[in-house]
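Interim report to the steering committee. The following record documents the input for ROK family transcriptional regulator (390 residues).
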Amino acid sequence: MQQGTNLPKVGSYNRSVVLETIQASDGISRVRIATVTGLTAQTVSVIVRRLLEEGLVVEDGSAPSRGGKRPTILRVSAEAGYAVGVHFDPKALSCVLADLAGRPVARLHVPVRPGARPDGVIRQMARAARRILREAGVPDGKVLGVGLACPGPLDEDGVMVSPPRLAHWDRVPIKALLCEYTGFPVTVDNDATAAAIGERWAGIARSTPSFAYLYLGTGIGGGLFLDNQVYRGRSLNAAEIGHMTVDPQGPGCYCGNRGCVEAVCCPSAIEAAMGDLRDHAAICAAAASGEPAALRVIEQVAERLADAAVSVVNLLDIDLLVLGGPALREVGEIYREVIARAVSGRSLARRLHPVRVETSPTAADAAAMGAVTLVFHATYAPRLGTLLSG
């Protein structure tokens, strides 16, 4: 959990620290907030009063007392705001509507027509966002914005820059167009970073200071939280775990390297390794049922993912590695077991602290849920830039 500061002129940052602390808990008292954040009791009291007035937080019962007045429990007001998350995969759009507590209210999946032009697909996203709000009966005034998770690379203005699996999408201003077509503010990030933010906001990494997210979809990517801050890198495209070399003699990758994680572990690579015309879903189902040939291919892929995972853990000295994304399908536990075994047996700091390897509980919808929380994170999460800006 983040620490607040009692220096002057940091009210916005401290407000975000307190709100995040309340959101990450399952009910918390003012006294406990002060203990967790390092803020004074008076500072916490002032901030909480304002959050209550704004309707972002509610008082919800009392905690047991050890003598004296029973402390009042605070929770985020789930109905104070909503966000729509859109995950753009080359084959489909996934839409999620969630409340401020990060709980999904509605879901919508729409196929993308092969070869569809960018403007048509972005208009399809806008229609899906409007439809899910209409069907859920959420008024525009309650909508904080739309989050978009999509393939990268992306620049700081939300413009797609030569996405390798999407012909005709180079220099498409996807953020600006979706904002225009929906009428809502739009927050955009690559799908793996979005999934990591979702895990931090409403998943298993809510109180973990440093973790990595390994995202398996059409391609393979990653997201990072380091010391409670999402890390995006110089050009906002950090954590490309899919382009770590794990087989120097392996097939060439579109990035220019050979034997990248993505080149040997993505769904199309798994289909090529099987060589029997079955698609990825069928291969995963067969492996999960114990078919020897399919299981052998999936276990080989898991070993390559494990090689990359050990390198990530050694490089970053993190506490948690989360696996997520639609490509996990029925084989998520196979991947998790192989990677966990490798991390526990081969990471350099294994005798100093354990590193958990977990599968996201929202694995299939990880990017869409992450897209929702992009909005919440951008609006409410404490960012060190608040302290450093003039």
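DSSP finds 13 helices and twelve strands in the chain. The committee is asked to note this result when reviewing the revised timeline.
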